[in-house]
Amino acid sequence: HHFLRNCGDFPCRIAPDDAATVYLTARRRERAGDHAGAVALYFKGLELEPDNSYGYGRICDLLPRLPDAEQESALQALESSMTRTPGQWHAAGPLAQRFASYRGLDRALEALDRWAQLRPRDPELMEARADLLVGRGQGRRDAERALPDLEAAVAAFPGHLDLKHSLACALRVLGRTAEEEHLLRGILIQHPAHALRLRLAELLRLRQA
User: Fold this and answer.
1) How far apart are CA 165 and CA 160, in angstroms?
2) Whose CB among 101, 113, 121, 128 lies 3.0–4.6 Å from 93's, allowing a Cys bridge?
3) Is the pTM of this model over 0.90?
4) CA 180, 183, 189 angle in degrees (round to 5)?
5) What string of DSSP letters covers 68-105?
6) Cα–Cα distance measured from residue 129 to residue 137, given in angstroms and rounded to the nearest whole number
7) Cβ neighbours, 10 Å, residue 208
8) What share of the chain is helix, strand, coil (3-state, %, to 5)?
9) CA-to-CA distance for 75 and 63, rounded, in angstroms?
10) How far apart are CA 23 and CA 46, in angstroms?
């Protein structure tokens, strides 16, 4: 906030069409309570940098402050923006979670089905679907639905850490703690400082109790 107050209009003068400048202006609008104006500017930033996750995050955070009709149009615009993005769709997970929050789990899964038709091999979409089923679904039943796709995704993308994390969560929900422990040990061999070491320590403590 101190930075926003003190940088003045200098960025606007030297780089008015730069995405960072647009996002700075959007934050100022947001701070002033002009949420609709801020959202419009964040969308402008996404036009300049369609793969910048910051714009997606800020728009999603501001959705509850917009009227229902504007929330719906903003979600549709976010989906349109993401599906024009080259490379992996890293915004898919957060965007799917927002769909679930505002329109329900079924609506979010329908969106993921649409996206998967365009990108059937994108691991971000695989992860996003699994996280919805495991995190927002009906416990064991939906974790069992997610498990085969997760196992196939991890086999196809063995270096994708977040997919492995999602698989560990599904195994946890299903009570398959031995398999979860084995998976966590493999992750921590490659990433020893990862926060999952706390979950592994918990499993070991429970096993020794």
Assistant:
1) 9
2) 128
3) no
4) 140
5) HHHHHHHHHHHHHHHHT--S--TTHHHHHHHHHHHH-H
6) 11
7) 6
8) 80, 0, 20
9) 9
10) 9
Spatial contact of 73 and 79, defined as CB atoms under 8 Å apart: no
What is the DSSP secondary structure assignment for residue 65, as one 8-state letter? G
pLDDT digits (tens, 9 = 90+) for 95-121: 899 889 888 999 999 999 999 999 988
CA distances from 38 to 28, 35, 80, 120, 156 (A): 8, 5, 19, 33, 40
φ/ψ of residue 122, rounded to 5: -80, 115
Cβ–Cβ under 8 Å, residues 124 and 134: no
State pLDDT tens for residues 1-41: 444 444 445 444 445 567 888 888 899 899 999 999 999 99
| 3-class SS of residue 187 | helix
Write out pLDDT tens, residues 70-85: 888 898 899 998 888 8
Tokens standing for residue 200: 């592994």
